[in-house]
Each structure stands twice: as C-alpha cells, then as structure tokens.
Amino acid sequence: MAAPPRDVDARTAALQRPATEVILKTHTEPSDDLAMERRKATFDVNDLSYVLNGGKEQLEKKMRFAEVLSKTSWGDKSRRYFLTREEEYVGALKAALGIWEKMKSEALSLSDGALMRTLVDFPGGLELHIGMFIPSILSQGSAEQQAKWMPLCMGLKIIGTYAQTELGHGTFVRGLETTATYDKQTQEFVIHSPTLTATKWWPGGLGKTSTHAIVMARLMLPDGGGGVRDHGPHGFVVQIRDMDTHLPLQGVTIGDIGPKFGFGGVDNGFMSFDHLRIPRDNMLMRFAKVTPEGVYVPPPPSNSKASYATMVFVRADIVKNSGSVLARAVTIATRYAAVRRQTAPGPGQRELQVLDYQNCAATLLPLLASAYALTFMGEDMMGMYKKFEADRDAGRFEGLPELHALSSGLKALCTWTAADGIEECRRTCGGHGYSRLSGLPTLFASYVQNVTWEGDNNVLCLQTARYLIKALAGVKAGKRVEGSAAYLNDAATELAPSRRCAAAGEACWLRPEVAAAALRHAAARSCATATETLAAASGGRLVFEGAPWNSNTVDSIRAAKAHCVLVLHATFLDSVARLEAGAGTININTSTAAALPSSSGGAGGLPRLGAAAAGVLRQLAALFALDSLERGGGLAVLLEDGYMSAAQAGALRRAHRGLLAALRPNAVALVDAFAFPDYLLHSALGRADGDVYRGLLDMARGSPLNDTQEGPAWHEVLRPVLAARSRL
Amino acid sequence: MAAPPRDVDARTAALQRPATEVILKTHTEPSDDLAMERRKATFDVNDLSYVLNGGKEQLEKKMRFAEVLSKTSWGDKSRRYFLTREEEYVGALKAALGIWEKMKSEALSLSDGALMRTLVDFPGGLELHIGMFIPSILSQGSAEQQAKWMPLCMGLKIIGTYAQTELGHGTFVRGLETTATYDKQTQEFVIHSPTLTATKWWPGGLGKTSTHAIVMARLMLPDGGGGVRDHGPHGFVVQIRDMDTHLPLQGVTIGDIGPKFGFGGVDNGFMSFDHLRIPRDNMLMRFAKVTPEGVYVPPPPSNSKASYATMVFVRADIVKNSGSVLARAVTIATRYAAVRRQTAPGPGQRELQVLDYQNCAATLLPLLASAYALTFMGEDMMGMYKKFEADRDAGRFEGLPELHALSSGLKALCTWTAADGIEECRRTCGGHGYSRLSGLPTLFASYVQNVTWEGDNNVLCLQTARYLIKALAGVKAGKRVEGSAAYLNDAATELAPSRRCAAAGEACWLRPEVAAAALRHAAARSCATATETLAAASGGRLVFEGAPWNSNTVDSIRAAKAHCVLVLHATFLDSVARLEAGAGTININTSTAAALPSSSGGAGGLPRLGAAAAGVLRQLAALFALDSLERGGGLAVLLEDGYMSAAQAGALRRAHRGLLAALRPNAVALVDAFAFPDYLLHSALGRADGDVYRGLLDMARGSPLNDTQEGPAWHEVLRPVLAARSRL
C-alpha cells in the first residue's frame, strides 16, 4: 500500500485526542445508577461474596492475581478482541506457558494455577496436555509408563494431546476406525488410518503444537489362526512430530482443522496415519495388556466400573464451569441493564432503566437464579465425585448407575442452560450486546461447544431417561430405587388421578415444598409418559435400542430434563441451608474445585451465610422453580394431568411476577456477590463502575481498522472509484 | 520470525499431497445417502423449486450467476472463513464495488443486482449507501436535493451512510442528543455532539468508508424571543470526510467501533461533532422546511402517516430475508443429518442416519416448516406494502394502525424464529457444526443482529400488543376490528367458559381448521390475559405507558407472539392454495422482492404447484401449527382455559409425532426445492453431493495456520521450551 499522501500525522494525533474533549458532560451519570442499586440491596454483599469465593482470603487472592496478571505481557487483554487467528494461537500459547512458568517460579499450587487460567481466560494449545494427556497417563498408564512419561510431561519436554474423535465418529466411540495392528516380529504396533473418515479430527493442540498424542485405535492382534482379531479401541502414546524440527514424522499427516465458532486460540487438528510404527510399550497398559507374543490380557472386571471416575469428574467440572460462566454473563447484562436507560415515560422525565421493564427482569432474574443453581450443583457434583472415589476404593459400585445417569443429564441441562443463557443475556444488552467489546459474543461462541463435547447433550439425556424408565419399570415390578429418583417409589400415589396440587393462592407458591412437589409431579409424569410412549412403540415391552427407542426420543429427553430440574431445585435449597449453617463454602472461580479445600476460611474459620442473604437466595430458588414450571413446559404437564387447576396456574404466574418485583432491588448486589474482577469480564458493558459508554469508546479506539484515519481500503480500492474533489 | 532450519519444502510438499492418498476407501459413501433420500421423495422437486424461485428462468439465472460469481476475484469464497478483520473489510468492499461495476457494465436490473448481492453474501461498507442513504434522499429530499445528490450517489462519487443511533440512544429516537442549531447570520446549521452519549455509534460504512452521512439531529431554531426552540430530530446531509484525502473534516471525529459478533466486513462507525457547519440546504426538506430566516415550516399532516411506507417496506424485507436465511440453515443441517451416521443398532450393522433419531427430526422438520412459513409471510408482507402504497396514493390510511401492529410483531417473531433456528440447526450438526467450515457459525453470528436492529423485538411486540389490547377493549365497547385481529370480534363467544376444542382423535389435528381454531383460541386468550394483567395494574383502566405498562410486559409480549403465529399459519395455507391455483410465485432468493415482478414465469406462463407438492406443504403447515402449540406454550394456555382436554392434548402430541414420521421421507427433497447453490451455502456439511468429510478436509487445508508445517509459534515460542531431541 502506498504511503499516505499528506500530513496524516497531525490528523492521527487529532484522533488520539479523546473525543471526550469536545464533549461537555454526559447528562446521565451511569455510575450513579450502580451506586443507587447497591444502596438498595437488602443484604450484605460481602457476606455472600465470601461464601461464594471460598472465603475472604481466596477472594482477596483472586483480586490480587487479577491485578498481577493484567500487568504481564501475556496476560494483558487490551488487544484480545482484535487478534487474527494466528495471533490468537500464538498469544494463547504464550499465556499458557506464562502461567506454567509462574507456577514453577513461584511454587504455586495446582488450584492457584487453575485460578490463574480462569482469570486469563485464553485457552490455547496446552489445554489437552494439561486436561487429557497427563490425566490419561496417570489413570491409564502402568507404573513404568508413568515413570517414563510424567517427567517429560511435567518438564514440558513434550506436549501431548488426546486423539479420539475421527471425522466420521464422535459420540459413538465403538465406531472408531483407526487401527493399531501388532507386528510380533518387530514387537511394534502399526498405527493406520484405513479410510478418510478414520482421520482424527478435533483434538485440541494437535494442529501445530503437540509433539505426542494418546491415540485411540482399534487393537488388532493375531487371532492364532493366521488372521487378526479386533479387540476394540485402546489408547496408545504416539510421537507425531520430530523433536528437532517440529515437522510431522514420516507416515503422519497433520494440520489445523480451520477456524471454529470460538476457541480461536486452540489449534484443533486433524491427523491421519500411513502405517506408522510405535514400540509395543507405548500401548497404555495399566489395565488391558498385550504381551510381547501378541497375547491380549484383558483388564480386571472391576476396571470398567472404576474407569467411570474420570468421566464423573469431567462432568462435575463441566457443571461447575457452567454456573461460573453463566454468572459472568449475568453480571455483565445485569449491570448494563441497570445503567442503560430507554424511553422516557413523559416529557422532561428521565429515561427508565432497562431493568425496570418487566420482560428484561423476566429474562435476567431467572438466569441469575440459574447461575446460582448451577454453581451449587457443580459443588454438589464434586461431592458426588469424592464419594464415588471413596466407594470405589472400598469396592462398592452400587451407586454407579444412578451417578452415571444423573451426571449425564446434569451435564446436558446445565450446559444448555448456560449456553442459551449467555445468548439471552447478550440480547438483553440490545445493540451494544452485539459488539464484541461487550464480552458476550466471545463468551457465547467459546462456551457453546459444551453442549456437544463430552457427549452430545441429547445423547446424554437419553442415558438419563433409560435409567429413569428402567427404574420406574422396576418399581412397578416391586423393586425400590435409591437416590435422586427415589420419588419414583411413590409413582403410583403421585400419578393417581386424584392427586392434586396443594397450593392455595399466590403465597403458597413461595413455599419450597409446594414448588418442589409440583416439580416432582411433573418429573414423575414425564417419566411415565416416556415409558408409555416407548411401550407403545415396543409392542408393550420396553425395548431400549433400535427403532422403538430411537424413534421415540422426544418424550425421553423431556423426562430427563424434568428429573434434572427437580434435582437442581433440591440442591439449591440444600446448599443454602448448608451455607447458612456454616458447613463449607463454594468456589465459583475455578472449575477444578476438587483440588481446593472446601474449608478455606483461614484462621477465622469458615464464613457463614447471614440470614438476610440466605432469605434472598431462597427467593431465587423459588423463582428458579416457578420459572422452570412456567417456561419449561412443566405447567402444561401439570394441567393436562389434572394435578393443577386453572386457578392454581394463575396464582403461580402471579407469584412468579411477584418474585421478579421482589428480587429487583437486589439484582445488582446478587451479581456483585460473584465478585468477578473487571479483568476477567473484559467487558465494556459489565464494568463494576458502570461507565459503559466511555468503556466502549476507549476500547473501540484500539480496533486495528483505526490504525489509520483513512482505513485500509482508501488508497487501493476507494480512491480509484471516488472522484478526487474538495468540498462539494 | 527466523527461517525454518531444515528442508521444510519437501515436508510442505508432503502436506500438499492430499491425505486421501494414504486412504483406501471410505466405507460409508455419503453421496449414496442423499441419492437414496432423493429417491424417497413423494413429489417432483422441480415442481416446487420453480414455484419457490420465481419460475424456471429465474432459477436457471440464479445458478448461472453463482457460476459466474464464483470465478470473479472478488466473488471467490475459498478464503472467506480465514480472513482477518482488515481483509474482511477490504474484501467485502471489493465485492460490493465488483457487483456495482458488473451491474453497470452489463446493464443488469436492480433485481439482478440484488440477486448477486445475495449470492456473494458478503456485506460491506456500501450497505447503508444502497440501503439507507439513497432511499432517504429519494424519500425525504426535495426535488432540488434529489437533483443535486442522486447523480453523485449513483455515480459513486460519494458514499453515504445513515447516522441515527447514538451511544446512549437506540430504539427511542426522541432521546437523540446531537443538535443542529441554525445560525441565521451565515445561513448554516451547526452540528454538534453535546455529550459523550450523543456520539453516533453503529452506522454501517461510517468507520472508514463513507464520505457523507445523513445525520439525525435535533433541529434547534430561534424561538423569536432570543432563545432556541427544540423541534426534535430531523435529517441533514453532512459531508464528513475530505474528498481528496479521505481524512475526517475538521470538527468531525470518526472511527470504527471495533469487531462485532459477525458482520466483520462492515465498518460500523462512531462519530462526534465539534460545531461542524453545513449549509442550510443540507437539511432534507421534502416535508419539514426551514426558511433562510430560520422559520420552521412543519410537514403536511398526512406526511407522518405516509412516511410509514419505508418502515413497512423494511420490515417486509426483513421478514422475507428471515425465511431465506432459515432455509439456508435448514438445508445445511438436513443434508448433513441424512449423511451423518451415528451409533450402530447392533454388531455388524450400519450406523443410523442422524435424521432417523426422533429428536433430530423433531428439531429440523419444524424448522423446515418455519422456513416455508416465513418465506410465504415475507411474500405476503410485500403484498401488504404494495397495497399500502396504493392506499396512500389514494389518501386512505384506515389500515395503517393494523399494518403497523402486524408488521412490528411479524418482524419480531420471524427474526427470532430464524435466529434461534440457525443455532438449533448448528447444534444438530454436532461437533462439525461448531466448525466455521459448516457455514453455520458465520450465518448465525451475522444474522442474529436482526433481533435487535430496526426496533428491538420486545419493543416491537409491545407495539403489537398495544394494538391488540386496544382492539379487544374496543370490541367490548361495541366497536368492530378489521383485518388480522378480526377474530377478536368474537372474543365473547371464543372465551366463554363452555368453549371446547372440536378435535376428536389424532387425525382431527391434521385438519387445518382444527389447528387454526386452537391457535385462534390461544391468541384470543393470551390477549385477554394481557388485558386483565394491565387492567389490574392500572386500577381497572388500561394505561399504556409508565409503570402499569412497563411492569407488565411479559403477558403483552406473549399475546403479540400468539397473534403472529396465527397469522403465519393462515398465510401458509393461503399461500399453498394460491400457488396451487397458479396465481403467482415466490422468490426465496432476494429479500428485495418488491423489485421483482411476481409473475416471472416467462413465455410459458406462471409455474403451478402440483397436487403432490401441495399436499406435502400442507403437512408442513400442520406441523408448524402443532409444534407452535406444543413447544410455544399454547398448550398450557388451552389446557388452563379448559378449551382442550387431556385426551385432546395427548392426541395432539401423537399427531405431531406422526407428522414427523410422515414428513421424514421428504426432508431432503423439501430442502433441495429451495435450490440454494453450493456457492451460496459455502458449507462443507451442506454440499448438494453429500461429500461432507472430503469437504471438511479440503477446506481445512486452506487454514492460514497450515501455511507452514510447524506453525507460527514454533521458532519463537515452542522451540525455546521443548528440549531439542530426536525420537524419544
């Protein structure tokens, strides 16, 4: 591009001069609105904030970390929304390496590292090294293998990824096509991609970063009769790049799969193999083994059950994260809705805060309730995980089917709630919500993958539904069911035609047991309906596969959702009671909460939730229940069933609207309590000081299109078209 | 970055070699699946395709244009998903200028130009020049002003934009703060931004492209007593950049507002004024005028009504576009769901097509029905617009309130349906839907702004609700209502406690009049509920402003939606009947359908929809109605009202599921009928040949991260960390 023709410097200098110089005064003072909101709160925000952040010390640490990170070269976010894909990739990798280095140099704990990763919020090429490669070697590798690989991993002498998904195969792992064929002569496995659809596709960090991968491939062993036998997918540690040149090894084709909706910093990759040979030792052999002679030693029978531990942990982690991410979105949207003013009710009057339009409150306050519900659920699921570990070590696996079913459905419901909720928050921000400077487009685009990965949400709901339908059939056959589905033991009573809702008037709907009873009835009925649909399609029997099952999934998925809503509501109330009793805290900040002590209150003991805050949280729990019924389809189920009358439905609606009004004064305080630093939110609209318009203008100045006044198209594209002429 | 250390070229060459060389054969042949689907269709696709594309000639022209455009430098899409923001901006501008040039050099019609813009699908800096600046001069400028500005506009000697929205003011136009103060001495207006929130924000093409803008500013005139009087917002043509240097004029600060969710090619801008002077003539003076002495001449009284024409046209255009865009998303997702296979029902069996899972069909088929519903609605709204023009020219404005109310609600409902539908389509594509190569992330991110611009959807629904509530009150007071809300004339009968749904059994629900009656009852009841809620809040009266109105918007918005669903269903059925009668066609391709003759069937006359295709469309209309009832909340309303019994609700559900199964064989044919060329879809998953996996791999190779084998981080970031070592 040719040099600019005239004295551009003076003009550019003029742009650098803040536009605010020419501005007299904003006649709205946005920060006043937030100050006013904060004065309206009926509880002490610190009281709730300490409990949600694992105590005062943890909260202060978070704020300190945010300050420190914002001043590092790799943690600075000022250009974050302006990066090209290549810059994003390199920048995210630098951030990951920066945190890794800081943890080493300052001897930080794993939980501190996790907190830093959350705050920097810039996933890159090391995600799967940390999140899948290392954990897989620890859980699936033999002692010798761990001794060999772990120092290389922890010293970052190699970078690994986890290559399972293929172009043609995702959720259905048994369909994987990549093969690992044993060659007894050389005692090697030959890794091969027999088809196009066998190409590994999606692994994070595979495209350009990883030197190694755990490759899931079908184990093919001599069958003793001159042929080969397929033992199904197993894991193999495979070096994929030359350590000197970083080029793919002979026999390996690797590349980046291209841009995604979000997650630009991660180099998700593709990889195919042309008869690549690896040593026999590289098969992960903690459980299943292959002898030098090529004989298969199957895993011990209990292993398949024990291996659920990782899955439960990952799901708990996802649920925990769903609450935290939704809380971030709600924080941004709620603060902005308190600052943004729209339409004066009359001449000379001040425009109204957007949050005072009922439809805005009816969007944001239930999402705020959901953010709390998901956060409490995540903490609770971490507890389930720990209990499972203890049970497993004691050889007890009775609770596994329910844990599997519940964690499946909760992963689905919580990620749907968070993903849809972020987008709803974005829309309540109106036009400015469409700007990336709001933070919400990036948050949504990066988060929404969660509804698909680690099991597509619909598929997971079907696993929950299968459990519920079997449980209900069992109850009818005289068995009892334990745990979250225990209410099915009373299905006959619950679903009797005479069963009626006990709510008498609007106030009744605020009582936790009335709302819980309605959610329970809706769940039981939904489960019964799914059972009947399936039975009708299976000729009276219950067939959980093939056409009868697959052609009747709509009602099954609904049953799974209704069950999980019930669990979320119960957990919400239990958690408030627990926090009020001073028994533990929540850590909303990092998803890897298991690494954190749940009693981190420091010398002063655990913080205890005060009565005022607990009361407000119980209002939120009520709103969660009523909103789930009213907008989630539960109302239609209850009316159809004759459980609820028209008068009760009307009372429920009034109670719902009343809660919106009752919670309105505490809206800003309830998001303030999450205590997300501005550094984490990185949002012009979500700033704690409410100075949103100055925030937008300041951030926009950094747009690369503003590097020159005339823009990148002037000299070569626009100038030849537009007639050169002075003022017309 | 340092040069690569070794012989990288040979390695790079290896990457260029398609990975498919090492691949034996895909054991699934995706294109077979689509061929199989196409054989299953029960109607002639061409028959429907001609009708949807304005006739055979128009369809062939579309295909020819797509071919031609794909070969231009500026229409080539191969790098479209890989561009940096700056490249997007320059590329989109080149495409816009390329089309402009082609129209001139080949003397193409405006409708051909619109078709090309649709196919190239790359909005850039000329959007508002074409869509707002020129139309505003034509509709608001005096004859002299048109004579002055139009040649400059059409010769592209200037580029204009439309600057209305400000940082602090969007939907509420009366709140704009920018001022235009008349200086009688110099006969100039002084354009000024008195506050930060007065900064113009969002206009497309403002950031770096436009030389001129129509600026909406408060007209401030001498009040005769030494002060100034505020006459509210008026439009002014303002030159903002120097024509020689393209630099902002003294007194104008301009910049790009930074990246958005989508729409990266458009340089939405900000602008503030520091006492910029413009000639008096630059106020648009077709209607209101200011004399040289500074005296205000108000517009003629009928003008405010006539000016609704533009608004109605823009909304019709948005609705038309909503159908087309949703149809694109459904095309991609439906083809992929027919090709993608997931989970074998038993050992040795082929995995099932995803479309055969009921929940997938239950997502995609109702969206397919909606795509048709929205397309028909858009065509119908163009008819309403033409009728309004004719009425206006005859001085008749009785239909305006209803047209205003209806077009508001339909804009809202249709854009919500399309935006949410695109994202639902994306999710049914599982993991690969998250790749931008699917086309769906870009489509969603660019489209979703439609729920906010041209009036926030919730605000628009409230305008519809206000009309409906007033209409119902009028009916109660003995007045009659005409048009789409005429059913409210019978509200007393409709809402009588004894009113019952006539459906007897599952088959009844397939009858259009039964479904329509249920939708009508739901709409009437929702309107009555909103009226009661408002009356309760207003102390018995109906107050349409302030707290009573703003604090009760949830039920109002529901009423507006229920009304619009009813209209969509009726229009669907009417359109099928009209097409079957050979009376007109649809043009699904361009949103500016008003420019197209609706009888473009060529010498052979209008194409006529065959009975087989019409029958399938009626099934789709039935699915649209039942799905709206079941998932849209209508069912709860009808049950609560006692209009529908539990048995009828059950029958409705079975009829809904039955329609899913009945429509399944025609799914691919129904999307094929839209006849979107692969060039438009630009999707690895939506290819007409179904070769999706090869498509993903081929497109991914173009990712800039694949420019080198070792990636952009190796030499400076990774190499210093990873120990140099050969194979471990």
UniProtKB/TrEMBL annotation, chains A, B:
Belongs to the acyl-CoA oxidase family. It comes from Chlamydomonas schloesseri. FAD binds at T165, G204. Residues 613-722 form the Acyl-CoA oxidase C-terminal domain. GO terms for cellular component: peroxisome. This is Acyl-coenzyme A oxidase. Signal peptide: none annotated. GO terms for biological process: fatty acid beta-oxidation using acyl-CoA oxidase; lipid homeostasis. One of its GO terms (molecular function) is ATP binding. Its main location: other.
